[in-house]
Amino acid sequence: MANTSTPPEPGLRSLRAVADSVGVSPLAVRLYENRGLVSPIRRPDGSRGYRDTDVVRLRRVVELLDQGVDFTTIGYVLDSGPEPAE
Protein backbone atom coordinates (compact mmCIF):
# COMPACT_ATOMS: atom_id res chain seq x y z
CA MET A 1 0.00 0.00 0.00
CA ALA A 2 1.40 3.40 -0.98
CA ASN A 3 2.01 6.14 1.57
CA THR A 4 -0.43 8.93 0.69
CA SER A 5 0.43 11.30 3.54
CA THR A 6 2.09 14.61 2.82
CA PRO A 7 5.82 14.47 3.52
CA PRO A 8 6.96 16.73 6.34
CA GLU A 9 7.99 20.19 5.25
CA PRO A 10 11.28 21.53 6.57
CA GLY A 11 10.76 23.66 9.66
CA LEU A 12 7.16 22.55 10.24
CA ARG A 13 6.03 20.26 13.05
CA SER A 14 2.98 18.04 13.16
CA LEU A 15 0.04 18.60 15.49
CA ARG A 16 1.06 15.59 17.61
CA ALA A 17 4.70 16.74 17.89
CA VAL A 18 3.66 20.25 18.92
CA ALA A 19 1.11 19.00 21.45
CA ASP A 20 3.72 16.70 23.00
CA SER A 21 6.34 19.45 23.12
CA VAL A 22 3.94 21.92 24.78
CA GLY A 23 2.52 19.33 27.17
CA VAL A 24 -1.12 19.37 26.06
CA SER A 25 -3.35 17.14 23.97
CA PRO A 26 -3.84 17.64 20.22
CA LEU A 27 -7.47 18.47 21.04
CA ALA A 28 -6.28 21.36 23.24
CA VAL A 29 -4.08 22.69 20.43
CA ARG A 30 -7.09 22.57 18.08
CA LEU A 31 -9.15 24.46 20.68
CA TYR A 32 -6.49 27.18 20.88
CA GLU A 33 -6.55 27.38 17.08
CA ASN A 34 -10.37 27.66 17.08
CA ARG A 35 -10.06 30.49 19.62
CA GLY A 36 -7.70 32.31 17.24
CA LEU A 37 -4.68 32.02 19.52
CA VAL A 38 -2.50 30.21 16.98
CA SER A 39 -2.66 29.93 13.18
CA PRO A 40 -0.80 26.91 11.81
CA ILE A 41 -0.02 26.44 8.14
CA ARG A 42 -2.55 24.22 6.36
CA ARG A 43 -0.93 21.69 4.07
CA PRO A 44 -2.61 20.58 0.82
CA ASP A 45 -3.88 17.42 2.54
CA GLY A 46 -5.53 19.56 5.26
CA SER A 47 -3.09 18.66 8.03
CA ARG A 48 -1.63 21.37 10.24
CA GLY A 49 2.01 22.45 10.14
CA TYR A 50 3.43 24.42 13.06
CA ARG A 51 6.40 26.80 12.91
CA ASP A 52 8.76 27.41 15.83
CA THR A 53 6.97 30.72 16.47
CA ASP A 54 3.69 28.81 16.85
CA VAL A 55 5.28 26.58 19.49
CA VAL A 56 6.53 29.60 21.43
CA ARG A 57 3.06 31.14 21.24
CA LEU A 58 1.39 27.91 22.39
CA ARG A 59 3.74 27.66 25.37
CA ARG A 60 2.70 31.18 26.34
CA VAL A 61 -0.99 30.25 25.97
CA VAL A 62 -0.51 27.27 28.30
CA GLU A 63 1.43 29.41 30.78
CA LEU A 64 -1.32 32.04 30.88
CA LEU A 65 -4.08 29.42 31.18
CA ASP A 66 -2.20 27.89 34.12
CA GLN A 67 -2.27 31.33 35.75
CA GLY A 68 -6.04 31.48 35.34
CA VAL A 69 -6.16 33.96 32.46
CA ASP A 70 -9.22 33.62 30.19
CA PHE A 71 -9.01 33.07 26.42
CA THR A 72 -10.11 36.60 25.48
CA THR A 73 -7.43 38.18 27.67
CA ILE A 74 -4.81 35.75 26.37
CA GLY A 75 -5.64 36.92 22.85
CA TYR A 76 -5.10 40.55 23.89
CA VAL A 77 -1.83 39.71 25.67
CA LEU A 78 -0.45 37.78 22.70
CA ASP A 79 -1.45 40.41 20.18
CA SER A 80 -0.31 43.42 22.20
CA GLY A 81 3.42 42.97 22.05
CA PRO A 82 6.36 41.13 20.60
CA GLU A 83 6.47 37.35 20.74
CA PRO A 84 8.46 36.04 23.70
CA ALA A 85 11.90 34.63 22.96
CA GLU A 86 12.17 30.89 22.66
Descriptive labels:
DNA binding; Multidrug-efflux Transporter Regulator, Chain: A, Domain 2; 86 residues; mainly alpha; disordered N terminus; globular; repressor; 5% strand; DNA-binding; MerR_fam; DNA-binding transcription factor activity
Order of secondary-structure elements: HHEEHH
Enter the CATH topology name.
Answer: Multidrug-efflux Transporter Regulator, Chain: A, Domain 2
Task: Assign the CATH architecture.
Answer: Orthogonal Bundle
Count of alpha and pi helical runs: 4
User: Biggest β-sheet, characterized?
Assistant: 2 strands, antiparallel
Strand content: under 5%
The global form is: globular
* CATH hierarchy, class: Mainly Alpha
Quaternary structure of the protein: single chain
Rg from alpha-carbon coordinates: 14 Å
Q: Low-confidence parts lasting 5 or more residues at pLDDT below 50? A: 1-5
Q: Mean of residue pLDDT?
A: 87
Helix content: 40-55%
- How many independent structural domains? 1
What is the element layout, followed by pairings?
Blueprint: H1 15-22, H2 26-34, E1 41-42, E2 48-49, H3 52-66, H4 71-79
Antiparallel strand pairs: 1-2
